[in-house]
Amino acid sequence: MTNPIKGSCHCGAVRLEAPHAPPWIVQCGCGTCSKLGVLWAYYPDGAVTVTGTTKVYLCNDRVIGIHHCRACGCTTHWQTRGKDFGRMALNARLLDDCNIAAIPLRAIAGPTPAVFDDAWPPS
Ligand SMILES: [Zn+2]
Ligand SMILES: [Zn+2]
């Protein structure tokens, strides 16, 4: 759990590096995440390094920006804009050398602050 973990989009233009594998993964049930089909791994702001150019889709009253690779379209991560949640999330499906099927999955109804408070920090 303490070794850095890396991931990338399908074409490799966007690369992600996190300090450790996620202790759990979130399947968000909101309309956006359901249609994107992503599984989120949460990290504190600043803990994840993202390299490469992304395209941003603004949702949740434009508070959250969901980033995608401009070339292959993979959803890479989300970050807040303006409102500080103290965390961001990367798409756990993009992680390499990480068996996400072995990581506990949490299903939440949607990305409301109340749900975040309940789910963070990981217990
Ligand atoms: Zn790509
Ligand atoms: Zn969502």
Brief overview, please?
The chain is mainly β. It has two helices and ten strands. The chain has helices at 31-36, 113-119; strands spanning 5-8, 15-18, 25-28, 40-44, 49-51, 54-59, 64-69, 75-80, 87-91, 105-108.
Question: What features would you describe in this structure?
Answer:
The chain has 123 residues and is mainly beta. It has a single domain, classed as Metal Binding Protein, Guanine Nucleotide Exchange Factor, Chain A, CATH 2.170.150.70. Helix content is 11%, strand content 38%. The chain has two helices and ten strands. The protein has helices at 31-36, 113-119; strands at 5-8, 15-18, 25-28, 40-44, 49-51, 54-59, 64-69, 75-80, 87-91, 105-108. The longest helix has 7 residues, at 113-119. One zinc ion is lined by residues 28, 30, 32-33, 110-111.
Shape: globular
Specify the helix fraction band: 10-25%
CATH secondary-structure class: Mainly Beta
Main beta sheet: strand number and arrangement? 5 strands, antiparallel
Task: Write a concise keyword list for the protein shown above.
123 residues, mainly beta, Metal Binding Protein, Guanine Nucleotide Exchange Factor, Chain A, five-stranded antiparallel sheet, binds zinc ion
Write the layout of secondary structure elements.
Layout: E1 5-8, E2 15-18, E3 25-28, H1 31-36, E4 40-44, E5 49-51, E6 54-59, E7 64-69, E8 75-80, E9 87-91, E10 105-108, H2 113-119
Parallel strand pairs: 3-10
Antiparallel strand pairs: 1-2, 2-5, 4-9, 6-7, 7-8, 8-9
The structure holds zinc ion (2 copies).
